[in-house]
Specification:
This protein has helices at residues 117-120, 127-136; strands spanning 2-6, 10-12, 17-24, 30-38, 44-45, 53-54, 60-65, 71-78, 86-97, 106-115. By secondary structure, the protein is mainly beta. It has one domain (2-121): Immunoglobulin-like, CATH 2.60.40.2310.
Length: 161
């Protein structure tokens, strides 16, 4: 079984950003699981944030999956050019290779609505997705400037005509 959650159910149709959290629930063991994210036209994604290997075609590869593993994968979704507005469907496929009783493929769909910027308003963010995405980012210490600032009083320079 696949559970998919979006950080936001809506996304700006031009220069928008969102995160898709994909959770693969325990199932049949497999030597290799291919996770395929099929996006509607105009919607793109970056490599997965969990560090799993990806093929040139964009399949996410997860090796040696046991029948009790719960696997999480996060992908960042974005639009770079105006995409059509309205409801869109994202399809996530889990394809297991080389396991006992592993089904050929399991599919899950998730809906997202692309809107113009002026219609976005305050999009509601799923706090669970937000917490998980933040947990994947390395802790960043605030930048420090170890050099003390030295403030000098202004100097008046008079130029004779």
């Amino acid at each position: 079984m696949i559970v998919c959650k979006l950080a936001k159910a809506v996304m700006e149709h031009e220069e928008g950003l969102n995160h898709l959290w994909i959770r693969l629930m325990p199932g049949a063991a497999a030597k290799l699981v291919r996770l395929r994210v099929l996006l509607p036209e105009g919607l793109h994604r970056h490599r997965n944030a969990n560090g799993f290997e990806e093929t040139a075609a964009g399949d996410i590869l997860i090796e040696n999956v046991s029948d009790s593993d719960v696997l999480d994968v996060v992908v960042e979704l974005y639009t770079s050019e105006p995409a059509g507005t309205g409801a869109k469907t994202i399809v996530v496929e889990r394809i297991a290779d080389g396991g006992e009783r592993s089904p050929a493929a399991v599919r899950q769909t998730v809906s997202i609505t692309l809107l113009p910027e002026e219609e976005m308003g305050d999009a509601e963010v799923d706090p669970e997705v937000l917490r998980y995405v933040k947990s994947l980012q390395p802790d960043r210490e605030p930048e420090r400037n170890d050099r003390p600032e030295r403030l000098m009083p202004p100097t008046v320079i008079t130029i004779d005509p």
